[in-house]
Amino acid sequence: MESSPYFGRFYLKSPRTTVILTAATLVCSLSCRSQNPPAQPTMPTASSRAFSPGLKLGDTVYVSGHLGIDPSTGQPPADIGEEARNVMKSVQATLEEGGLTMDDLVYVEVYCTDLSLYGDFNKQYVTFFRKPYPARDFIGVKNLLFGAHFEVMAIARKHASHNKKELSAAR
């Protein structure tokens, strides 16, 4: 591709000008971002999602990340406990559609934007299970979509509720 004589002569042969133009571009880019923060994405409709809420493969169900937001508003409820209940009910509905129960969960990942909400989440979480609980990670993250505080992903295995055995903690 042939460049213009002006570009080749001025821009490429003048390192100082290159630095100035690069700096100006960065400053403009950063100031534009601060004035116009990126818009939150809109809730995808079922037909526009590029993912499955859950995927069944044999006796295993893989549950995609679920949020506890209100689908009609696209926002989480003001009450943290309600958001935690909503996200767990969403996971439960996906499992039930696949013919499994919450007790069939063997692994759960919880992403949370504020680790001080651990106790609030746990109060709701334990009400969805009988012992032994699934293996679980509780991971702190900076942000989640739609302003949610929690996102839950999981793996369940049919009849795991009859076959799970809790292992003792590492010594």
Q: Main traits of this protein?
A:
60s Ribosomal Protein L30, Chain: A, 171 residues, alpha+beta, 5-stranded mixed sheet
Gyration radius, to the nearest Å? 24 Å
Order of helices and strands: HHEEHEHEEH
How many H/I helical runs? 5
Biggest sheet character:
5 strands, mixed
Distance between the termini: 65 Å
Low-confidence stretches at least 5 residues in length (pLDDT < 50)? 6-12, 17-22
The CATH topology label of the largest domain is 60s Ribosomal Protein L30, Chain: A
The top-level CATH class of the largest domain is Alpha Beta
Number of DSSP strand runs: 5
Q: Beta fraction of the residues?
A: 15-25%
**Strand arrangement across the biggest beta sheet:** 1-2-5-3-4
What is the overall silhouette? globular
Q: How helix-rich are the residues, as a percent range?
A: 25-40%
**The CATH architecture of the largest domain:** 2-Layer Sandwich
CATH homologous superfamily title of the largest domain: RutC-like
Q: Kindly state the mean pLDDT as a whole number?
A: 81
Structure overview:
There is one protein chain. The longest helix is centred in the first third of the chain and has 21 residues, at 15-35. A hairpin with a 2-residue loop joins strand 1 and strand 2 (60-67). The protein has helices spanning 5-11, 15-35, 80-97, 118-125, 160-163; strands at 54-57, 60-67, 105-112, 135-140, 150-157. The radius of gyration is 24 Å and the shape is globular. It is an alpha+beta fold. It is 34% helix and 20% strand. Helix 3 crosses helix 4. Strands 1-2-5-3-4 form a five-stranded mixed sheet, with helices on one face. The protein has two domains: 5-35; 54-162, 2-Layer Sandwich (60s Ribosomal Protein L30, Chain: A). It contains five helices and five strands, in the order H-H-E-E-H-E-H-E-E-H.
